[in-house]
Specification:
By secondary structure, the chain is mainly α. The protein is built from eleven helices and no strands. The protein has a domain of about 170 residues: Cytochrome Bc1 Complex, Chain C (Up-down Bundle), CATH 1.20.810.10. It is about 70% helix and about 0% strand.
Length: about 250
């Protein structure tokens, strides 16, 4: 049976359709594995070999990977929530009530999105603390540490911008207090608050701007820096390389 499947696979690899998709044959040696990785759009950012220490649980406790999975869950649940939401006053609050009392499984969908967001903030903080504790900010990981800090800020801004969308009393006053704190920043504080709110008051312009930032601007920035982050982890030699051994085990 195995011989038959192997023969069929060999015949498939000789077809024109297969060769149009896969430029090289099976990766059976170090050379062919390297060629497969370097020549593939989706694999070129992955290493040909991975250090065994990098695969250990204690190397990262998979905090970064779990945070990324939560981000994907937030993306999926967020898209589903967009089908039932209008970024307008007072319709936004009515939509939240409909999700609770009218839409089938609406409470589950909203709570799944909210809990995933809270867990993501917590895990990203834990991930940053763990990386700092293990010296992950040292060479050759300095650039990736900065990327991680940017991702932490993006995560916090995602959580903050989503806070206004229910348009209830808690959301309204939380954004009011938060933007007033921003206005205390020297030089740019007042302009930053005006830009975020689209005016001087928390109103419909603020709701629309926070909605656009929450569902378009910040997710795109997050996807960009997540890709850079994963790529640099691999290109810097994995999770366990330190400057004291010049990148060698």
């Amino acid at each position: 049976m195995a011989t038959t499947l192997h023969s069929l696979l060999d015949q498939l690899r000789e077809t024109r359709a297969w060769k149009s998709v896969f430029r090289r044959g099976p990766a059976l040696t170090n050379r062919t594995r390297s060629q497969a990785v370097f020549g593939n759009l989706f694999l070129h950012w992955m290493p040909v070999k991975v250090r065994e220490k990098s695969l250990a649980v204690r190397a990262s406790y998979y905090l970064g990977s779990i945070s990324f999975l939560l981000f994907l869950a937030l993306t999926i649940t967020g898209i589903l929530l967009m089908f039932y939401y209008h970024p307008a006053v007072p319709q936004a609050y009515r939509d939240m009530k409909d999700l609770r009392f009218v839409v089938s499984n609406g409470v589950f969908l909203r709570n799944a999105h909210r809990l995933a967001a809270q867990l993501m903030v917590l895990l990203v903080f834990l991930h940053m603390f763990h990386v700092f504790y293990r010296g992950g900010y040292k060479p050759p990981h300095e650039f990736n540490w900065v990327v991680g800090v940017i991702l932490l800020l993006v995560t916090l801004f995602l959580s903050y911008t989503g806070y206004l969308l229910p348009w209830d009393q808690l959301a309204f006053w939380a954004i009011t207090v938060g933007t007033n704190i921003m206005s205390a920043m020297p030089v740019i504080g007042g302009k930053l608050r005006f830009t975020l709110l689209g005016g001087n008051l928390v109103g419909e312009n603020a709701l629309l701007r926070f909605y656009v930032m929450h569902v378009v601007v910040l997710p795109l920035i997050a996807f960009l820096f997540i890709g850079i982050h994963f790529w640099r982890v691999q290109k810097d030699g994995g999770l366990t390389v330190r400057s004291k051994d010049d990148g060698k085990e």
